[in-house]
UniProtKB/TrEMBL annotation:
Entry's family note: Belongs to the CcmD/CycX/HelD family.
Keyword Cell inner membrane: yes
Subcellular location: Cell inner membrane
Protein name: Heme exporter protein D
A Gene Ontology term for the protein's cellular component: plasma membrane
Superkingdom of origin: Bacteria
Transmembrane spans: 6-30
Functional note: Required for the export of heme to the periplasm for the biogenesis of c-type cytochromes.
Membrane topology term: Single-pass membrane protein
UniProt KW keywords: Cell inner membrane, Cell membrane, Cytochrome c-type biogenesis, Membrane, Transmembrane, Transmembrane helix, Transport
GO biological process: cytochrome complex assembly; heme transport
Pfam families noted in UniProt: CcmD
Lineage: Bacteria, Pseudomonadati, Pseudomonadota, Alphaproteobacteria, Hyphomicrobiales
């Protein structure tokens, strides 16, 4: 497979897209942990699940 003179642009675009998708996945994971922690604190304040 040959990309010709556009190879740096194509590789850079795929790299940037991978970076953005990775950052979105990491942000979702981090936010999920934060939300679970906040929910646990709220449940502790109420005295458990009810």
């Amino acid at each position: 497979m040959e990309f010709g003179p556009y190879a740096p642009f194509i590789v850079g675009s795929y790299g940037f897209a991978a970076l953005v998708l990775g950052a979105l996945a990491l942000n979702g994971w981090w936010d999920g942990r934060t939300q679970r922690r906040a929910l646990a604190e709220l449940q502790d304040e109420r005295g458990g699940r009810s």
